[in-house]
Amino acid sequence: MDYEYLKRYVLGEFGMDLSAYKDNQIKRRLEILLTRTNTDDYKGYVQFIKKDDGERAKLLRALTVNTTEFYRDPVVFDYLKEQVFPGLLKEKERIRIWSAGSSDGPEPYTIAMILDSMAIPTQRFQIYATDIDNEVLARAKVGKYQERRLAKLPSGWRERYFREVDRGYIISDDIKNRVSFKKHDLLGKLLLGPWDVVLCRNVLIYLNREAQQNLVTKFAHLLESGGYLILGWPEYIFQPEKQGLTRVGPCTYKKNS
Ligand SMILES: C[S@@+](CC[C@H](N)C(=O)[O-])C[C@H]1O[C@@H](n2cnc3c(N)ncnc32)[C@H](O)[C@@H]1O
Q1: Is omega for the bond preceding 194 within 30 degrees of 0, making it cis?
Q2: Which tens digit of pLDDT belongs to each residue from 203-223?
Q3: Residue to probe by mutation, ligand 1, list 69, 102, 103, 145, most atoms within 8 Å of CB
């Protein structure tokens, strides 16, 4: 009952439907907030945050888990650079790429850097990045990051694509201008396809089985035939052939023609 009350509040306040997420994970994160604010139950916690904007932001942060970094899981990005993009660009004049659940930008910006390093002109691709959390999208548009989040970039890329500023690095305008950020809830209506590449990495792990399956089915439907779906390291599709997909590389599924 109490948890249902909090779920209704979160849906109204942030437009986030917690029914699709794994209950135990969400409750574990909420427990920490309850302890810290000295509230006994979810209802008391909601009353508390209604009067406290700062705590409301902390709740959203705890619910969304925004952890990300540049070139996260290098073998996946190497595979995109060496196999996926050359193949697609040989066949198509222009490709459409969607980073779904982009957090504050390292994933779509990494894609923009990869295409730049391959000397692909900007007219040949579009990169969209979406997230449910307005705060991370605002940070993505600023494009300032702490040094540790750049640690996995290939050598020379930090100097090539960033400018050092006070306590961090700002991404170059040239790379920034190649990515369009937009607020979007993956559990609502999906962005119109067809897409050549959809990256949805480290988002499914937080969803329950049913929501995961629904989302993968929708992605498979929205992909261009021969297009690719890229998941996170801990995520996989059980029986991908049922969705018309084949696993072709690390975390990478291709839509059958
Ligand atoms: C752990 S981050 C993953 C970032 C990046 N894709 C990566 O793998 O490095 C998960 C992101 O998914 C977003 N997210 C969670 N639920 C979402 C939803 N229903 N719609 C859109 N984004 C969502 C969170 O706000 C968070 O920024």
Answers
A1: yes
A2: 999 999 999 999 999 999 999
A3: 103
